[in-house]
Design brief:
extended; single chain
């Protein structure tokens, strides 16, 4: 196991997830329900499944598309979505 990759991935995902919609939704579920364990297991399972899908599709895409193109496309998508949210925020 490559611990450098493990810790870099852990730190980046941990910091990116702090205070995001997923964490806030989990917080609300925990506040509204008595079964905190069920909320934790459901939330952790969903995050694990989405991470598994990202790894599987990322490895498939990397066989066809060079990593540099994927980075440029992902960055461009973030910029476009950020602009979309600023322009069409519904206010």
């Amino acid at each position: 196991m490559d611990f450098k990759v493990f810790f870099a991935t852990f730190c980046m995902i941990f910091l990116a997830e702090l205070g995001d919609k997923t964490q806030l939704a989990t917080l609300m579920f925990a506040a509204e329900n008595k079964s905190r364990l069920a909320v934790f297991i459901g939330s952790a399972g969903a995050l694990a499944l989405t991470s598994l899908l990202a790894v599987v599709f990322g490895s498939l895409i990397s066989r066809v598309v060079p990593a540099n193109y994927v980075r440029v496309a992902a960055g461009s998508l973030f910029v476009v979505l950020g602009g979309w949210m600023l322009l069409f925020s519904g206010k």
